[in-house]
Specification:
single chain, alpha/beta
């Protein structure tokens, strides 16, 4: 059984941070608020444009998490790219849609860097100490049917409460809160298995 767990999808973390740090209230289906609420960064120059764009960028970034990545193929393509524009395009394909691509770096001030550092420290301190403490091990009975149904990747986001979304035939998105609770995680894995 091969299953990857991805808690560090920068494109998604940036979008979640922007939503809260800039006080956006975008429409549509979206995950709950972040567990570690960021400091308020200010008022967007064009709130309406940011709030309208956020769901679109979020959907594109979430969808991109299901794009398969072949490291050796990517390395070969980068080596063979002769022009800087070619390399930049390959990197864009690897990273996928981002808030920065759409609006630049202006939204990401020192408070974002501080929040990111705190997030990394929290991830390190929350690591399971043994194999038996791994969320997948604790929910193994639900994981096996999900894996048999095609699950190969679980992406976690640091949001409050339960949130589960099937991204593709092989990718599941859940909150860290969901992942850390064996019953909630089993229910999410069960949803995937029955898709």
């Amino acid at each position: 059984m091969v299953l990857s767990i991805d808690p560090d999808r920068d494109q998604l973390l940036e979008l979640l941070w922007v939503r809260e740090a800039w006080g956006l209230h975008p429409a549509g289906d979206q995950p709950p608020l972040l567990v570690d609420v960021p400091a308020r960064s200010g008022e967007p120059e064009d709130r309406a444009a940011w709030e309208a764009a956020w769901p679109e960028v979020w959907e594109a970034a979430v969808s991109h998490t299901a794009v398969p990545f072949e490291p050796s193929r990517f390395e070969e393509q980068i080596r063979n790219a002769t022009q800087p524009q070619e390399r930049a395009e390959l990197l864009r394909e690897l990273v996928g849609p981002t808030w920065r691509e759409r609006f630049g770096d202006a939204a990401f001030d020192e408070s974002y860097r501080a929040w990111s550092r705190a997030r990394l420290l929290a991830l390190k301190s929350q690591r399971p100490r043994s194999l038996a403490e791994e969320p997948e091990r604790r929910s193994l009975q639900a994981l096996i049917p999900a894996w048999e149904a095609g699950l190969t990747k679980v992406i976690t986001i640091p949001c409050r409460g339960q949130y589960t979304r099937i991204i593709s035939d092989s990718v599941l998105l859940v909150t860290e809160t969901t992942c850390s609770d064996p019953d909630l995680y089993a229910a999410s894995l069960g949803t995937f298995a029955k898709k």
